Amino acid sequence: MTSPSESAPLDGAELETWSALATVLEWLPPVLDLQLEDGWDLTHFEFGILYALSTAEGRSLPMSTLAGYANSTLSRLSRAVVRLEKRDWVRRSTDPGDRRVTIAGLTDSGAEVVASAAPAHAALVRRLVFDSLSAEQAMTLREISRNIAAAISDEGGWRPGR
Amino acid sequence: MTSPSESAPLDGAELETWSALATVLEWLPPVLDLQLEDGWDLTHFEFGILYALSTAEGRSLPMSTLAGYANSTLSRLSRAVVRLEKRDWVRRSTDPGDRRVTIAGLTDSGAEVVASAAPAHAALVRRLVFDSLSAEQAMTLREISRNIAAAISDEGGWRPGR
DNA sequence: CCGCATCACTTGACTGAGCAAGTTTTACCT
DNA sequence: AGGTAAAACTTGCTCAGTCAAGTGATGCGG
Lengths: 162, 162
Fold this sequence. Notes:
The structure is a homodimer. By secondary structure, the first copy, chain A, is mainly alpha-helical. Chain A is built from 6 helices and 3 strands.
């Protein structure tokens, strides 16, 4: 009964739901990316890094902590930070306390970038997501998302960046 | 009033909703991919191509039509089909009626792959999405997804593959 | 029926992500 | 202390995706 091959195929309503969700899954991230790339030549991922740093104590974080916030591998993060460093938005230094860890810090120009990109990004999220939903739907969406995220965490123990 | 810089930043509840949704947006596609890659050494995108062909009249479609179904650029599709052809799961032929169009057709072994992967894939979708939701939540999710998808279509007129 | 725009791809150059292997520094065990 | 394991990145290799340019084939205006 628990064998995967025995679970019924998705029925009509489920298929429609899945298809609609799949559409969002496929389109939403690219549109969000597009704004940042057009306006600031930034990946959504790179923006996430800058944003995380901007909210951090002292505008700087160890790479591993940052990788956690950005749901990323250290490898991916490392390459992204190299790119950001080239633009002088981030600077790296090794932690004097533990010379294995390198601390990524936001520069002033990096902070300016975040300050100018973040409101536009939030506005786009509002337009695409919250403006299309009733307050009740938004609350339900939060529940739904949490449930699915929990299921993902359980399933196979998969986690990004680990 | 309609200037983007004037829209209020996301409030607490919205931020939580967005953060939960962003998690799903980031994690769900990779987990879905993982199964196909581990089990069949297939990208979700490649699977989509095979699946679309399997449901098509004569198990074959012109590249441009297929690109529409797969929400993809012709360029991306072309490369993917090259890969699938190397594994003898798809074969290309030029349409005798219009020698510009090339028709991608599913081979028998390709059909076998779809037949074996599709149920497992559907089962995973069920476990991750529908098993975590009440029937009512699932219905709401369909509404929500449609609304967001509609907002995306309106916004900036962006469309994948075009 | 000829020339040129257009269509339907394909391909070359480049970029970002993943995996695995390598480096340096620290922690632990005895 | 001394040696080994582990942590915290970084980097080489390879691959998929994008963008722009290239290649035939077709349609169409005069």
